[in-house]
Amino acid sequence: MMREGQAHTVYRADYQAPAWWIDTVDLTFDLDPAKTRVLNKMRVRRNPDVPAQPLHLNGDELNLARVMVNGAASSFKMDGSDLVLENLPEGSDPVDLEIFTTCMPEKNTKLMGLYTSSGSFFTQCEAEGFRRITYFLDRPDVMAMYTVTLRANKAQFPVLLSNGNLVEQGDLQGPGNEGRHFAKWVDPHKKPCYLFALVAGNLVAREQKIKSRAGNEHLLQVFVRPGDLEKTEHAMNSLMASIAWDEARFGLSLDLDRFMIVATGDFNMGAMENKGLNIFNTKYVLASQATATDADYANIESVVGHEYFHNWTGDRVTCRDWFQLSLKEGLTVFRDQEFSMDMAGSASARAVKRIDDVRVLRTVQFPEDAGPMAHPVRPDSYLEINNFYTVTIYEKGSEVVRMQSTLVGREGFAKGMKLYFERHDGQAVTCDDFAQAIADANPDSPLAQHLPQFKRWYSQSGTPRVAAQGVYDAEAQTYTLTLTQSCPATPGQPGKEPFVIPVTLGLLADDGRSLPLTIRPSQALSSIAHSATNHTVVLTEASHTIVFDGVEQAPAPSLLRNFSAPVVLQIEESDDALLHLLAHDEDAFNRWEAGQRLGLRFALQAIAARSTAGADAPALQANLLPASFVQAMRDVLRDPQLDAAFKDLAVTLPSEAYITEQLDPVDPQTVHAVREAMRQQLATELAADWAWAYDECSNTGAYVPDAVSAGKRALAGHALLMLCVAARASGDQVWPGKTLQRYKDAGNMTDRYNALSALVVSGSPLADAAIQSFHQLFKNDELVLDKWFALQAGAPDINGSALPAVRALMKQPDFNIKNPNRARSVIFSYCNGNPGGFHRADGAGYAFWADQVIALDAINPQVAARLARSLDRWKKLAEPYRQAAGDAIAKVAAKPKLSNDVREVITRAMAD
Ligand code: TRP
Ligand code: ZN
């Protein structure tokens, strides 16, 4: 069943304040999986600032039983699936409404609104799910006080939860109520309806009492299915750390007596920040050393932090409309990234986190910003808001907040946050309001100086380019750096105005020392000195010339340190200059980046050589990486000063996705073959070094998921993979044998999974037995089974084996397309995570994609639309891939009954 009525585009410019306010809501639920009855009593009043209008309430897939106005039955009208009340009393008096509806939670496969999962009830209301529970003004600027009564069978649903404080509970009396109980909850804070939540079921909780800095007591609870309780310790620890961090860094305290997290195995995204009752995908709650990897532990910490931080940035101050989504998401991602960095501790561990975040930005957000779905951080229009929970809103939005923080400094940013809450607590506001508060709290900062121009980061889409050119004058002892910015056109935005771009930089001497910086003062350019050798210059013009005085020797410039702005840096550097930065830069991010630039350079050279040579292309086994680069990678591996986590990232070649982004047109099989050959070379030529690194790092003692030991496990796993890759070429079976033994002996999931993955990814003949054994061991653990499915769906394609393997996985008894985690673990892992297997010359991968988009759309449009994005960049593909991808897209487009979600993605992909 699709939403009724015509799809229509919503424009930011059309925003109007609501004609009615809702002051209080009193909801009573009679919970039954097949048919739940909802009584909605609300007190509404006309907004005196807006001309009188009928009350237009949103609804979706509801069955309406009756409407009462001030205690009397009332007439009403339907407008599509919305309910319209035209004859409400005039004047400013409040009006009492009673609306009685039913819905079918068990049939709700979209997982939006009220649904069931393993026999329990859950809700998901953001963005527009509340209208699937009752008729309402389903928009974030309507904020109300909620009272919620839940009634259900006590044996089946012993736990009844909603937002806020539990004020009453007990058994229900009277005929028809045998075995039933109730709970009544009152939320002390007003909120938009997208933050409403209820949970009912057979759940158990880990509980923890804490005292805040202010001296208040709070009860923390993490609810899970019976049997999962021992896997909640890390989530609880992460929650306590988040609460302490927000108090220490921003002076923001928990504003509720009770804070609850509930986990469900059926969830469209990661988690949801409902006030006082966060609902999570089990993937971001459950962890034990036997079942979760270090990456899982880190993700749990960051998602628990993210949702907790929304309690202020999102819940206390919310969005005026959905175009302002990044107001809460970009800011909250920035906060969770900073939290993870502060938790990681050392400068090196902070850099590792920064590198991880930048990798996501560049491999996922940059392509989005260059493709048919490109949109500004604050979009101007949408067809389906669910499609705008994107890496641009979240990750680029976080970078836009990070640049504001850079421009006002860490202390200045904390002051800005304080002003933001003083001004806007309890309000629904805009991105403009946020930036204004940060600037107003720092009137002398470059942000305040350039605020209107800075806000172009919110309105212009596309990834800016910064081209750099340096000239050294030995006689004058000056180094002159010219930085020129530009931004490619994006759909609907042919021309761009210059951005405000903070470029953090330094200059390196021949011996690797950082040179002291003396920037010649200029009216046009502000700069911030962090230390004698590390400054940020603030670009505002299309081009700037920066003169450094007193430079004793021709320097190697280190630009865009710590990735100070979400841009592409274009600079011509010799291999030697990059090797120099890799070895010596004081900025750890740029050390890593120098290695990436080199790796990318060699990949692009090999790809170019292959396409010009055509059929005569030399065999790829030839050495694609020069000896100097291989030696530099060896030096990194053996460097006693570097942390293992940093080494692991520095010796990882740029991903296929990142290489692909640099090319147009792109032959995905060439990219795949070239990267494979480069990896093979690194594996073989550094075999002794990998073995050494493995011995150094393979024993981390009793399992603790801290940054240092996790880094060692990551490097040991990487080394095993490379040793198995080397064995593939040499035929030597010693390392695959050792890897299988490691798989069997492992004392934690990280080591076990890394060993299994090394066998599978290197195509070892020992992989099959290990895969069987893994299933045997973990067949009752959903989250581990997801890993098992994902690993196989991403396995190397040997003579076209990947697609048939994926089809076989989908016939497994424990495959279930209705469960988003499981669908993602198989279908997404193949379409997004296995480029070598997906981009088949016969187009069968794309045809499979089309079938799955269509199948998923009938079940869960949100998940289907995410999958639909896999072919966003199809117009860049070389033939025969482009034609085949176009056919697959046309096949989806030809379906008459598509959801708005999928329709919007497909229409944009074809139009671009
Ligand atoms: N607001 C949530 C977050 O970022 C994510 C979210 C938005 C979501 N829409 C959703 C989660 C729909 C599940 C389903 O934390
Ligand atoms: Zn969020």
Automatic annotation (TrEMBL):
Residues 575-910 form the Peptidase M1 alanyl aminopeptidase C-terminal domain. Residues 235-442 form the Peptidase M1 membrane alanine aminopeptidase domain. It catalyses: Release of an N-terminal amino acid, Xaa-|-Yaa- from a peptide, amide or arylamide. Xaa is preferably Ala, but may be most amino acids including Pro (slow action). When a terminal hydrophobic residue is followed by a prolyl residue, the two may be released as an intact Xaa-Pro dipeptide. Its EC number is 3.4.11.2. Transmembrane segments: none annotated. Residues 26-195 form the Aminopeptidase N-like N-terminal domain. GO terms for biological process: proteolysis. Keywords: Aminopeptidase, Hydrolase, Metal-binding, Metalloprotease, Protease, Zinc. Its cofactor is Zn(2+). Pfam families: DUF3458, DUF3458_C, Peptidase_M1, Peptidase_M1_N. Residues 462-570 form the Peptidase M1 alanyl aminopeptidase Ig-like fold domain. GO terms for molecular function: alanyl aminopeptidase activity; metallopeptidase activity; zinc ion binding. InterPro entries: Aminopeptidase_N-like_N, Aminopeptidase_N-like_N_sf, PepN_Ig-like_sf, Peptidase_M1, Peptidase_M1_dom, Peptidase_M1_pepN, Peptidase_M1_pepN_C, Peptidase_M1_pepN_C_sf. PANTHER family: PUROMYCIN-SENSITIVE AMINOPEPTIDASE. Belongs to the peptidase M1 family. This is Aminopeptidase N. It comes from Comamonas piscis. The gene is pepN.
